[in-house]
Amino acid sequence: MSGLSPDTPVPTGVVVHAKSRVLELQYADGNSYRVPFELLRVYSPSAEVQGHGPGQETLQTGKRDVTIVAVEPVGNYALQPTFSDGHSTGLYSWDKLYELATCQDALWREYIDKLNAAGVDRDAPMSAPGASHGHCHH
To answer: Which residue from 107, 87, 85, 88 is spatially nearest to 96, judged by alpha carbons?
Structure first.
């Protein structure tokens, strides 16, 4: 897990907008960011998504319509959302949330590039965990 630095902004407010599917993060400096659930989901810090080392990430697809059904605070350092697809193992530290909020455009581009490179459609359903379709990770 990435280390928390003392200057990582901690949101003063977190609002789940179910209809527009964005997580609104409000900060003390008056800034607020709307982070799409899909972006949060495909960049989940969980081992299930990130793997256990570089190059082991699992490319997430079919998450455009995913929603957040619950958000639990974890200590004073993270949020743990439960997504409508059942994914709930991602611990989003304050620095991760701030990165997702402030770097959205670059992260979207990176995600779309990864999809294109893999020849995968953004809305393709994910195969069941453990199902292997010859996806080699070199």
So the answer is: 107
In a domain, residue 54? The reply is yes
The number of domains in the chain is: 1
For residue 111, the SS3 value is helix
> What are the pLDDT tens digits along the chain (138 aa)?
445 567 889 999 999 999 999 999 999 999 999 999 999 999 999 999 999 888 899 999 999 999 999 999 999 899 999 999 999 999 999 999 999 999 999 999 999 999 999 999 999 998 755 444 444 443
- Rounded to an integer, what distance in angstroms lies between the CA atom of residue 98 and that of residue 107? 12
What order do you get walking across the sheet with 22-26 strand by strand? 13-17, 22-26, 32-36
Spatial contact of 7 and 91, defined as CB atoms under 8 Å apart: no
Look at residues 10, 9, 3, 2 and name the one whose alpha carbon lies nearest to residue 76.
10
Helix (H) or strand (E) holding 32: strand 32-36
Which CATH number goes with the domain that contains 27? 3.30.2020.30
> Domain range holding 56?
13-118
